[in-house]
Known about the structure:
Strand content: 5-15%
Helix content: 25-40%
Order of helices and strands: HHHEEHHEHEEEH
Amino acid sequence: AAPRRLMVIAPDDTLFRHAAARRQEQLVRDSREWRMIEEVARASFKGTPTDPPWRWASENVFLDEKMAATPGFYDPDFTPWTKEIQEAALNPDISLVAFMKPSRSGGSEAGLNILRWMPGNWPGNAGVCFPEDKQGRDVTKRRITESLARSAAAQMSDDPHDNGLSNIYLRNMMIKMGPSGSARLFTEWWVRYFMLDEIGRASCRERV
């Protein structure tokens, strides 16, 4: 006859340790800190956007008397030639867009629409370079900070020091603004989107 096998079950605290680990995990998930982490993560991880910035802006960007001659929501059909510029943000194969334009042709607004659209759709650090400091501070106050306060209120910091005219620290991205020649715009940070507003055209001979 075949020999009988004897199975010995030794005392083990594995089940007790797993139960304790589950209780500890639940305590962590119920904590205020965990809820904050979830909120930040939910805001930071987004699916691939499909609506271009111009369409989003038509529903979310209100241009008041300080931003446009005719107050109202951004109208993409008023400057249809800027749609393609804004659609470039959805194309991973495009890394540089140059737009030769006259003044007041909608080019700057198109670039700012991408900036406004980013916090809720394509978060990542961004920078805007203006021809000179005074103009940059004026545009930042009238057309960037106040606009973001309406269109990206959920991502804006409650600390007023985070919403300045040189840096805007949102919950899921940072925006730097400054004049041409400012080294801080190009060092010690990564950037997803950068806008050079109103670059002058000059030949090498003219520069000399």
